[in-house]
Specification:
about 325 residues; alpha/beta; Rossmann fold; Dihydrodipicolinate Reductase, domain 2; 2 domains; nine-stranded mixed beta sheet; six-stranded parallel beta sheet; 10 helices; 15 strands; globular
């Protein structure tokens, strides 16, 4: 196989993001077709690839080796299983799924079929986070003791409904449980969660606070809200403050990474800025997606596991579902 031939399922904002990346930035990859959603025909036309009227028809094509699934979250598992049954490698947008039995079924199906299943988690490929990970790995702050994760988004003008098919912690905030596992190289053991809505009318939560105890002793909090009053706190879009045994890290994934030692604070990296509203396809934003999608392609060509596996995706979902269970039962949930 000289090039990985890719089909995209789902034609919304993330479908367009992956179409841009696989068409213009990835090596040894070729976007072949798009299916799924009202915008699929227009997206296919924009990138001069085939529009396929049904997902089944796309999966039946012999000129497609792999699919990127960017549909609503509750469709991920059934579409992933259909793709695996047709012998396609899968890059699944986060979250990998919304229930653990379904995720386990998908992981097992891909394993038995010899297919790569990668969970999309672009924050692992964002420069600021990679710098922070390198500092942690090199022992710059010693063993991590405590982490505060923050993700804040302004309250929307229309609070009468939410387009999400699952809670915000699962649909978006899941970046934080994944980053915690990656930074700590450890698994969560105990979870306590609180979640709900303050203004948005939705059956799914838009604000949450989660406490996590990891198996080697590190403690973490994850504070996610899509209902913040303006202005947002500085650097609160995706931010972590980390206490180690001999130093501190202040990680703004869209700004500066600061290292704190006994000598004071030092800016060790600053992420190049971009305007998300005006430049959604800015090369600065797309860099992490390019690195991620390239890893997916390379793992297929090199016949190895991808950097972020289905099991990684499952572990992050398990933390979130434990937080939801804790909210419902008013108890701490043991998961490890």
């Amino acid at each position: 196989m000289e090039k990985v031939r890719i089909g995209i399922i789902g034609a919304g904002f993330m479908g367009k993001t992956h179409a841009e990346v696989t068409s213009r930035y990835c090596h040894n990859a070729r976007l072949v077709a798009v299916a799924g959603g009202k915008r699929a025909s227009a997206l296919a036309g924009e990138y001069y690839v085939d529009y396929v009227e049904s997902v089944d028809s796309l999966l039946e094509r012999s000129d497609i080796d792999a699919v990127i699934i960017t549909t609503p979250h509750d469709c991920h598992i059934p579409l992933g299983l259909a793709a695996a049954q047709h012998g396609k490698h899968i890059l699944m947008e986060k979250p990998i799924g919304t229930d653990l039995p379904g995720i386990d079924h998908l992981i097992d199906t891909c394993r038995r079929s010899g297919l790569n299943l990668m969970t999309a988690q672009t924050q692992r490929f964002r420069d600021a986070n990679r710098v922070a990970k390198s500092l942690i790995k090199d022992g710059a702050i010693g063993q991590i003791r405590m982490v505060e994760e923050v993700q804040h988004v302004l309250l929307p003008a229309d609070t009468s409904q939410s387009s999400e098919t699952c809670g915000r912690l699962l649909g978006h905030g899941i970046h934080s449980p994944d980053r915690l596992r990656w930074f700590l190289e450890d698994e969560a053991e105990w979870v306590c969660g609180f979640s709900g809505n303050y203004a948005i009318q939705s059956p799914h939560e838009n604000s949450s606070m989660t406490l996590i105890q990891f198996s080697r002793g590190a403690m973490a909090s994850v504070w996610v809200t899509f209902e913040s009053a303006p202005p947002l706190f500085p650097a609160s879009t995706f931010h972590a403050r980390i206490i180690g045994e001999k130093g501190l890290l202040d990680v703004d994934s869209y700004g500066q990474v600061k290292l704190g030692t006994k000598d004071g604070w030092q800016v060790v990296f600053e992420q190049e800025s971009f305007d998300f509203e005006k430049e959604p396809l800015s090369p600065v934003r797309l860099k992490s997606f390019t690195l991620q999608d390239q890893e997916f392609v390379d793992s297929i060509l090199e016949r190895r596991s991808p950097a972020i596996t289905g099991e990684d995706g499952r572990a992050a979902v398990e933390i979130v579902l434990a937080a939801y269970q804790s909210q419902q039962t008013h108890q701490i949930v043991h998961i490890y």
